[in-house]
Specification:
Blueprint: H1 2-17, E1 26-34, H2 37-43, H3 49-52, E2 53-55, E3 61-68, E4 71-81, E5 84-101, E6 104-126, E7 130-149, E8 153-155, E9 161-178, E10 181-190, E11 195-202
């Protein structure tokens, strides 16, 4: 009976520790984020509207009815060392809003942002059912903006304007709760947002 008990104990221990972030462990995750860096960039864009549009003399441009889809993030990572994960993220987000001239709707714009980034995080707590970590990411975002403007607004240049810029993510605090399939939440700032949450599956 002793060999059987030892075998069962070994199986339990191996299966338990296999869900820690040990070297060569990998995981895939999907999440939704709110208040992203692109949201803040769009909110500040009224400072540069004169670079994009012109209006009738005496016209004042303002914005309202802004809507945005939370950033969709897909992430894959592998543990290059115990507790240390390196991976890549793809993110997608759309934003739109109304343009007003002298408080009357005069047009709209809609933007689509795609982000690709490399990331790393360190799991300073890495238990079978609970992990805590911090991390950072650096990437490139491509944004395409389409304008639908009325007679009171004129676009400087062509419609369907595109831009690219470097972006980043600082994850101040992250939690992962569960074994092979787990839920997680992160707090930070960048392309994933101030807060994000989702599901993670360890391969």
């Amino acid at each position: 009976m002793k060999p059987i008990k030892l075998s069962l104990l070994s199986i339990v221990l191996i299966s338990s520790f296999s869900f820690c972030q040990t070297a060569n462990t990998s995981e895939i995750s999907a999440s939704l984020g709110v208040e992203t860096l692109e949201d803040f960039r769009t909110a500040l864009s009224d400072l540069t509207t004169t670079l994009l549009t012109s209006t009738v003399p005496g016209g004042k441009i303002t914005f309202e009815n802004g809507s945005r889809i939370s950033a969709y993030n897909v992430h894959y990572a592998i543990a290059v060392k115990d507790h240390w994960m390196v991976g890549a993220t793809l993110a997608y987000q759309t934003l739109s809003r109304d343009w007003l001239v002298n408080d009357k709707v005069a047009g709209q714009d809609s933007s689509t942002a795609y982000t690709i980034a490399v990331e790393t995080d360190y799991r300073y707590i890495s238990k079978p059912v609970f992990q805590m970590y911090s991390g950072a990411g650096l990437g490139l975002v491509s944004v395409k903006t389409d304008f639908t403007l009325g007679p009171n607004l004129m676009l400087k240049g062509e419609n369907g304007q595109s831009s690219q810029y470097f972006t980043f993510q600082i994850t101040a605090l992250g939690f992962r709760v569960g074994k092979q399939l787990a839920g997680f939440a992160e707090l930070g700032f960048g392309y994933k947002g101030i807060a994000s949450a989702g599901l993670s599956y360890q391969l």
